[in-house]
Write a structure and sequence with these properties.
six-stranded mixed beta sheet, 16 helices, binds nicotinamide-adenine-dinucleotide, alpha/beta, seven-stranded mixed beta sheet
């Protein structure tokens, strides 16, 4: 094994879990690189205890002092970027440049967290003569964050810096498929000066997620992963009266008009559908061509053929996921879709046991086909055709998801029409992956997100704090006794 067997990280140190364990595979070559513990409720109890114990002193530090830890954390992410990049590459299978971009994004969200003191100064107003009302923000207590396999470094960092700067203590439950980055982040937080117990990692699968939802010592839960599990976690965590925000899957539509800049549209669409091997919730999964767009599709196919598995296209997370993606393609072909670029049965020289699917472009997909409706989560683009922009929007609007949508055109009017009518939380105009960068917040609509607000940016401040309203009167001569 390339890495030692993992433990949980509780109270500032690696802790063995006496329970079962799973092998961790590198999707690059299918080798076993480590093992991850399958924690039990008793492990979670220890982590909650540790986070509860750390809460009073951490939360009572002035925010400007808490933030100092994150200036140092940002520096450590920068200093260790090569090693963190390599970890993401090996455990997730994405390319080195994608892995590095992920860590760079973690640095950007940490920068945002360092600005939180400037964004959270309170509000004060003289509401009657001599009577003042002011608002203060308080942390929630122990919060838990459950994360998926596709961004082992960035998605945990969507919540770690913001939640902790705001005074909470945390338990992270990373995906059991990519557990290594989480423990390394815990070590870097400790090195940055975070007091023991403020941040804890508990590994495991469904059982530990359910225990998190049920645990009375946890005040709030965030989740990022598939819609199926996002619904379960939202319902279960809310039923024990926790604050919950759960982000689910996606089926993002790109609306392509004939007047789009051909080169820009084709290269953006190819990058959007194949980046991170299509395993990201912002990936282009469906394209709706409005009218005569064959020149753009031809160029898109040309661009797609330049994307080579094992070189500029990373691996799929598991053998099962590779099979699932290939089955979607074969079923769509059987249902009448035309395979323009075929990524099935691809092998990478020297990495014959790795899990790879090449870029795939399918034309003449119909909105009622399974591949048009479900999340494929692979480097596969389904092209549908429509005669009008209104019909294109009907297709987009019929999706149960609503993470992102984009339009490619040179017409401001058409772009505005799509931006206004798309049923999605994040919209791109001539941008295939419209991730809102800080201070803007990240979050979709419909079955791509459950709960109020977004998970990053300014919106996360609302999620991770509660407000206290204090009304003060010092002058006895004031006749104000209202509400009495
Ligand atoms: P997943 O739902 O299988 O797993 C996510 C987390 O839930 C993991 O930590 C896992 O251990 C846990 N889990 C899995 N099954 C469970 C169950 N039955 N009960 C309780 N917990 C369970 O997701 P994944 O395969 O790791 O990640 C891919 C999915 O995440 C895709 O659907 C993708 O679109 C989505 N995603 C969404 C966003 C977003 O911002 N909306 C971002 C990244 C990924």
């Amino acid at each position: 094994m390339k890495y030692a067997a993992l433990g949980n990280f509780i109270g500032g140190q690696a802790v063995k879990s006496g329970n079962g364990k799973l092998d961790v595979f590198s999707p690059i070559d299918g080798s076993v690189i480590s093992t991850v513990p399958l924690s039990k409720k008793s492990d979670l109890d220890k982590a909650v205890e540790s986070a509860k114990k750390a809460f009073p002193s951490w939360s009572s530090l002035p925010i400007k002092e808490r933030v100092q830890v994150f200036y140092r954390y940002k520096y450590l992410l920068e200093q260790n970027i090569d090693e963190l990049t390599e970890l993401v590459h090996i455990e997730n299978g994405k390319t080195i440049s994608e892995s590095r971009a992920e860590v760079e994004k973690s640095i950007e969200v940490t920068e945002f967290a360092c600005s939180i003191p400037q964004l959270t100064s309170g509000e004060v107003l003289e509401v009657s003569k001599g009577v003042e009302c002011r608002i203060e923000r308080y942390p929630l207590g122990v919060v838990a964050c459950i994360t998926p396999f596709n961004f082992p470094n960035m998605v945990p960092n969507w919540t770690i810096p913001n939640a902790l700067c705001l005074g909470n203590t945390m338990i992270l439950k990373p995906s059991e498929q990519v557990p290594l980055s989480a423990n390394r982040l815990a070590e870097l937080l400790k090195e940055a000066g975070l007091p023991d117990g403020v941040f804890n990692v508990v590994h495991g699968d469904k059982e530990i997620v359910e225990a998190i939802c049920d645990h009375p010592g946890i005040g709030a839960v965030t989740f990022v992963g598939s819609t199926k599990v996002a619904k379960i976690v939202y319902a279960r965590a809310s039923s024990t009266l926790k604050r919950a925000l759960t982000l689910g899957g996606a089926k993002n539509h790109l609306i392509v008009l004939p007047d789009a800049n051909t080169d820009m549209a084709a290269s953006n669409i190819a990058a959007s559908m194949s980046g991170c091997a299509g395993q990201r919730c912002m990936a282009a999964s469906a394209m709706v061509g409005v009218g005569a767009v064959d020149h753009i599709i031809d160029k898109l196919c040309e661009e797609s053929k330049k994307i080579i598995p094992g070189k500029n296209l990373g691996a799929i997370i598991s053998k099962q996921a590779k099979e699932r993606i290939e089955n979607y393609i074969s079923e769509a072909e059987k249902d009448g879709a035309k395979v323009l670029v075929d990524g099935r049965n691809c092998k990478v020289d020297g990495k014959e046991n790795g899990f790879y699917v090449g870029p795939t472009v399918l034309d003449y997909v119909k909105p009622e086909m399974k591949i048009a409706k479900e999340e494929v989560f692979g480097p596969v683009l389904s092209i549908m055709r429509s005669d009008t922009i209104e019909d294109a929007m009907k297709i987009e609007n019929s999706s149960s998801y609503g993470n992102a949508a984009a339009v490619f055109t040179q017409s401001g009017g058409a772009a505005n029409y799509v931006a206004e009518h798309a049923s999605a939380g994040m919209i791109g105009v001539n941008i295939g992956v419209p991730v809102p960068r800080e201070p803007f917040s990240f979050g979709g609509w419909n079955e791509s997100k459950f709960g109020v607000g977004d998970i990053t940016g300014k919106s996360s401040i609302e999620f991770f704090t509660k407000l206290k309203k204090i009304t003060t009167k010092w002058n006895p001569e004031s006749q104000v006794n209202w509400m009495s």
